Amino acid sequence: MDIKFIKKQQSIGNLTEKDTSLDGKNLGFPLLQQHIVANKKFLEDNPVAQRWFELVQIPVADMNVESLLIKEGEDKPEDILRHAQEWIKNNQQKYDIWLEKARKAANSA
Q1: Is the confidence at residue 34, as pLDDT, over 80?
Q2: Are 54 and 106 in contact, with CB atoms under 8 Å apart?
Q3: Which residues contact 56 (CB under 8 A, 6 or more apart)?
Q4: What class does CATH assign to 4-108?
Q5: Residue 21 belongs to what H/E stretch?
Q6: Which pairs with CB-CB distance under 8 Å and at least 24 residues apart come from 42-50?
Q7: Which residues lie closer than 8 Å to 79 by C-beta, 6 or more apart?
Q8: Are 30 and 12 in contact (CB under 8 A)?
Q9: pTM over 0.85
Q10: What residues form DSSP beta bridges with 8?
Q11: What angle do CA 90, 1, 109 make, to 5 degrees?
């Protein structure tokens, strides 16, 4: 399986304040967006995963918290798994909706 996160940065030319703002604060640089990249064969064989990847949207603030935890030494696989489990627990309703929608989409395909 060939899944990884990549950062996509827009061109620096002709940026507006909207392009460089988050929560009403102008950061002075464009925001980075996270995207999931997956092997096409895997997605063909796993329609639930494909739909799941399309639905998942983790807030930048939550990704920043994770990055800080990793930077501060909580970088072992068991740490990252624990962080993910805690995030799911704190966002259970959203997580469950994503799963339900992914399963329904796969069943109707």
Answers
A1: no
A2: no
A3: 36, 98
A4: alpha beta
A5: strand 21-22
A6: 42/1, 42/2, 42/3, 47/105, 47/106, 47/109, 48/102, 48/103, 48/105, 48/106, 49/102
A7: 69, 70
A8: yes
A9: no
A10: 33
A11: 75
pLDDT value at position 7? Answer: 44
Specify the DSSP element, H or E, that contains 11.
none
> If you average pLDDT over residues 76-99, what whole number do you get?
97
φ, ψ at 25 (rounded to 5°)? -115, 130
List the alpha helices (DSSP H) in 1-109.
40-45, 47-55, 60-71, 77-90, 92-108
Backbone φ, ψ for residue 87 (5° rounding): -60, -45
Q: Please, what is the Cα angle at 25 between 6 and 32, to 5 degrees? A: 5
Question: Is residue 13 very low, low, confident or very high in pLDDT (cuts 50, 70, 90)?
Answer: low
Q: Tokens 């925001």 map to which residue?
A: 31
